[in-house]
Amino acid sequence: xxxxxxxxALCLACAACGPSHPRAPVKAPNDILLLGDYxxxxxxxxxxxxxxxxxxxxxxxxxxxxxxxxxxxxxSWKISGDQLTLSAQKGMxxxxxxxxxxxxxxxxxxxxxxxxxxxxxxxxxxxxxxQTWWRVR
Length: 137
Description:
Elements: H1 6-17, H2 30-33, E1 36-40, E2 47-51, E3 56-60, E4 73-80, E5 83-91, H3 97-100, E6 101-108, E7 112-120, E8 132-135
């Protein structure tokens, strides 16, 4: 009786490959994913923020005010990994130099931003510590 191992080897090779698994989608970098409008509602009231491509942000009372002046405050932002730095330039959190700059560890997604305070001398802004702000655009 003749026996060929070629068909067995082929079966083993195919079995070793296993089913193909779809790749997980790649998350956009945080500096791109952050761009847009976010809002919060809760015990601290409603607030909205817009992050622009040019590295500026504006904070307003609610999302209907995002395109109206004057904002509650505005400034610039930078993100490195999960560390977001806000530097207030006008309005809210500009009363003293200690209040101007803040750093938060953030989790940014298509759904929103989760804030965790690292350093913030502005009492009003630091109320967002531990909150999730939901993406509206």
